[in-house]
Design goal:
The chain is an alpha/beta fold. The chain folds into two domains: 203 residues, Rossmann fold; 213 residues, 3-Layer(bba) Sandwich (FAD/NAD(P)-binding domain), CATH 3.50.50.60. It has 17 helices and 19 strands. The strands form five sheets. Strands 3-2-1-4-19-18 form a six-stranded mixed beta sheet, sandwiched between helices. The chain has a six-stranded parallel beta sheet with strand order 6-14-7-8-10-9. A three-stranded antiparallel beta sheet has the order 11-12-13, with no helix packed on it. Helix 2 crosses helix 4. It is globular, with a radius of gyration of 24 Å. The protein binds flavin-adenine dinucleotide (FAD) and NADP nicotinamide-adenine-dinucleotide phosphate. Flavin-adenine dinucleotide (FAD) binds next to helix 2, strand 2, helix 7 and helix 14.
Amino acid sequence: MRFYLIRNCTRFLSTGQHMPKVCIVGSGPAGFYAAQQLLKSSGDVKVDILEKLPVPFGLVRFGVAPDHPEVKNVINTFNKTANNPRVQFLGNVNVGTDVTIDQLRNFYHAILLTYGAQKDQLLNIPGENLSNVISGRRFVGWYNGVPTDKDLKINLDVEEVVVIGQGNVAIDITRILLTSIDKLKNTDITSYALERLSHSRVRKVSMVGRRGPLQAAFTIAELRELLKLETCKKLWRAPDFAGVRDIVPTLARPRKRLTELMLKSLEESASDSTHAKELNPIFLRSPVEFLGDDELRNVRFAVSRLRGDTIQNQVAEMTDEFEVIPCGLSLRSIGYKSAQIDSSIPFDERKGRVVNVGGKVEDSLYSAGWAATGPVGVILSTMTNAFQVGSLVCKELASPNENKAGSDGVREILNSKGIQIVSYGDWQKIDRVEQERGKQLGKTREKIVDVAEMLDVAAK
Ligand code: FAD
Ligand code: NAP
């Protein structure tokens, strides 16, 4: 097989110069920012971005909340990169399945893995498979139009919801459940989700963390937005904050401001009794079991206490005291996880990320973004990481003394398998159709959620 490929590569050899050819796997922020850096650092590098889906931008399209359109402005920068003549986008190419890393090694001088984190962490507790115990990642995918999540079975005909985890994804999920439909209806949220949310009976959302207020993973802007929800009263538990006020002066500024905001909201919540909906942040509760028969009825938590010296690194230790919180729906939002997309990629299953040192995996193989760092950080930190790794790739990419087939090699393999490649121009057709459909519905965009339909539109 290898002989066959090398023989075919030689067909693409030109007698002219040998341009360095880099393949980027994944078109989220890490992929696009790394490409931008490569173009900037080298005047002749050619960059191909291979993307599993027919549509680009990763979590900017499929993660960022629909009511945060300003975050998606980074797409303007990605468009500039994609329109550079030295860049090609090859969508609908599932690396590891449609084309292997070994094959890509034959076609490119360097490969940069920026394929993100597409699985989620599990709690591994009894009842996790009950219906209406749902992955927060899939719920996000459902309202944002991820093709594999569009048919998610979720019952919103319930009054009480328990969100497990207190990161910014948990905040997004909680906000979407408690926001009034009027605030969502003009966004790019999928119409089916909008329709279902408009009939939702959800009245109370408990957002439960295993540690205390001083370890909360959410950040201040996201909490402030949640606290501003007009139709919703906020009920904190005073005992969760025992001793916290005394520690505030010793905290570093971001944590101090976040804690002060929680304390202020705690004070105000005592007099907040006017609204129909309820947000209930709960600390120091570790999930131990989902209870129910056919339907979810409760989540059982162990009361936790904190152990450890430094506040930020204190861990939750379960006690033998328990609390049962009733709910008809529970969303597990305890973090994403990367996967090994190809057996030749050195992968740390425990940490859920590609094994790398500063972005270097092994000779000619690099990784950046969530695939490399694990599922932490915002677009800005992903950008910083991708710029660093992009520079490293350029630095180590000496003038190649061998020509490589680049995208011609990829195309030959995909053509032989009958796989349709979606170019950036094709994506722009999909983009136009989505925006046009959105306009007709008074929304910024109506996403196409079916891969076959995306490919149809791309082929027109
Ligand atoms: P991703 O964005 O996940 O991109 C990975 C890409 O690789 C995807 O397009 C995927 O389809 C592709 N891919 C996967 N497997 C393959 C394969 N086998 N072959 C080819 N391609 C493949 N940050 C903010 O700054 N503001 C926000 O408001 C914000 N909201 C968020 C909301 C949610 C729900 C989540 C989960 C994160 C949010 N973030 C936000 C964080 C931000 O999205 C991440 O920092 C960033 O997207 C990580 O970029 P990435 O390129 O590493 O991964
Ligand atoms: P996260 O910030 O790591 O939060 C994960 C949460 O799950 C934490 O509260 C964590 O508690 C909890 N958790 C983990 N394992 C648990 C377990 N076994 N039992 C109970 N709780 C558990 O992850 P995320 O919310 O998925 O966000 C990922 C990244 O995307 C973050 O960097 C986030 O800031 C970013 N993001 C940003 C935005 C935005 O800017 N608007 C929006 C969404 C996401 P412990 O702290 O105790 O581990």
